[in-house]
Automatic annotation (TrEMBL):
GO terms for biological process: SRP-dependent cotranslational protein targeting to membrane. It catalyses: GTP + H2O = GDP + phosphate + H(+). Its main location: cytoplasm. Composed of three domains: the N-terminal N domain, which is responsible for interactions with the ribosome, the central G domain, which binds GTP, and the C-terminal M domain, which binds the RNA and the signal sequence of the RNC. The gene is ffh. It comes from Planktosalinus lacus. Keywords: Cytoplasm, GTP-binding, Hydrolase, Nucleotide-binding, Ribonucleoprotein, RNA-binding, Signal recognition particle. Belongs to the GTP-binding SRP family. SRP54 subfamily. Involved in targeting and insertion of nascent membrane proteins into the cytoplasmic membrane. Binds to the hydrophobic signal sequence of the ribosome-nascent chain (RNC) as it emerges from the ribosomes. The SRP-RNC complex is then targeted to the cytoplasmic membrane where it interacts with the SRP receptor FtsY. This is Signal recognition particle protein.
């Protein structure tokens, strides 16, 4: 996420971080670089300029040149300002209605339907809600179908009325249906267009007036940079929405939209979409995003995700197995599956401070576990529980069965042995032994 911007900001601030003597000249030079990095990330010119001016004022106000660690202070000022620009505090969504009505708006292709599904899934699994998804796109049967596919995937009911060409009526019928069937959240997916047009705006504002939503969200593709900001402005002028959803932040997004949108429309970013799958949704926290942009990682989110997936009973079971030397490939597999549930590898690595930068040229492939899983699946139960029986001919068979090579099987066995050894040492409080092994 925002790799390019992170890298450029890091370079810009590098001078200050490293050098003892900092002069007014190199502060100015640094800020110029920061501004350039923001512009390259497609941040609006005016916002970029104001940003660096504010940082400069604050730096001078705090006598940055005479502090002990001027570099650190500058980084902090930039971080604080970035956080502020993206909205300050995180804002939740209003779920006070019964049912709470959430209206989705945005252009076609922005990711509206996908996000409607993600939000329904999020509210169902994390907030114990019973959502109803509503297909209000009366122009594209494929869109209605798509919502049904999404609904089936996450086990959420979808309300649609294929013959009806009146979105206001569909929405009203859906709300009546929700009340009758105990749905406490109604998520209305509306029709989008390829560009902002009057008819679409009229249609969505009619739905808005008729259903009086607690929350109107505007969905926008972050990859479109400045266009995203302009579209947001056009929608906000007509719809006065409550919050923004930025999708496709997993791609090669430059970051401009995330940084500029709040200050242009004065509405908070509430959620981000980070993938095509139903669980690729995150609450937007401006301070955590600022940390990530500045390459400081996002340990809080990482720990949260780990906690969500942490299964205490499973952990205890594994611990016992390690102590008894019974940790096998099946356990290894279940560990891998837990890690995978935490999100895409690239996303996770980006949350580790410094790792994004260190690994920026490494191709982190979400399929990297696939080979490992295939090899384990090609093992017999005996081989999984007691890997020491895996001899040359078994290696050959496993390689063949999993579409990998003997070398890959060897590598997996080596990694597995190393990991088992390390786990055993950590169990025995053997920090010292481990240090010895690492040659310290
Ligand atoms: P709609 O026309 O606004 O309803 O857009 P869709 O929900 O159909 O999404 C358009 C395309 O974007 C689809 O191919 C989605 O799979 C994809 N998409 C949606 N959200 C994300 C996201 O957060 N990341 C990525 N990589 N793709 C997404």
């Amino acid at each position: 996420m925002f790799d390019n911007l992170s890298e450029k900001l890091d370079k810009a601030l590098h001078v200050l971080k490293g050098h003892g003597s900092i002069t007014e000249v190199n502060v100015a030079e640094t800020l110029k670089e920061v501004r350039r990095a923001l512009l390259d990330a497609d941040v609006n010119f005016k916002i970029a300029k104001e940003f660096t001016n504010t940082v400069k004022e604050k730096a001078l106000g705090q006598n940055v040149l005479t502090t002990l660690q001027p570099g650190q202070l500058m980084v902090k000022l930039v971080k604080d300002e970035l956080t502020e620009l993206m909205g300050g505090d995180a804002e939740g969504i209003n779920l006070s209605g019964n049912p709470s009505i959430i209206l989705m708006s945005g252009l076609q292709g922005s990711g509206k339907t996908t996000f409607s599904g993600k939000l329904a899934n999020f509210l169902k699994t994390k907030k114990a809600k019973k959502p109803l998804l509503v297909a209000c796109d009366v122009y594209r049967p494929a869109a209605i179908n798509q919502l049904h596919v999404v609904g089936d995937q996450i086990g959420v009911e979808v309300f649609s009325d294929e013959g009806n060409k009146n979105p206001v009526q569909i929405a009203q019928n859906a709300i009546a249906h929700a009340k009758q069937n105990g749905h406490n959240v109604v998520i209305i997916d509306t029709a989008g267009r390829l560009a902002v047009d009057e008819e679409m705006m009229n249609e969505i504002s009619n739905v808005y007036k008729a259903v009086d939503p607690q929350e109107t969200l505007f969905v926008v593709d972050a990859m479109t940079g400045q266009d995203a900001v302009n579209t947001a402005k056009a929608f906000n002028d007509r719809l006065n929405f409550d919050g923004v959803v930025l999708t496709k932040l997993d791609g090669d997004t430059r970051g401009g939209a995330a940084i500029s949108i709040k200050s242009v429309v004065n509405k908070p970013i509430k959620f981000i979409g980070t993938g095509e799958k139903m669980d690729a949704i995150d609450v937007f926290y401006p301070n955590r995003m600022a940390d990530r942009i500045l390459g400081m990682g996002d340990v809080v989110s990482l720990v949260e995700r780990a906690q969500e997936q942490y299964d205490e009973e499973e952990a205890r079971k594994i611990q016992k197995k390690i102590a008894k030397n019974q940790f096998g490939f099946d356990d290894f597999l279940s560990q891998i599956q837990q890690i995978k549930k935490m999100g895409s590898m690239k996303d996770l690595v980006g949350m580790i401070p410094g790792a994004g930068k260190a690994l920026k040229d490494v191709d982190i492939d979400d399929d990297s576990f696939k080979h490992i899983e295939a090899m384990i699946h090609s093992m017999t139960i005996e081989e999984r529980t007691n890997p020491s029986v895996i001899n040359a001919s078994r290696k050959k068979r496993i390689g063949k069965g999993s579409g990998t090579s003997v070398q890959e099987v060897n590598q997996l066995l080596k990694q597995f042995n190393q990991m088992s050894k390390m786990m055993k040492m950590m169990q025995g409080g053997g920090g010292k032994k481990m240090m010895q092994m690492m040659g310290k």
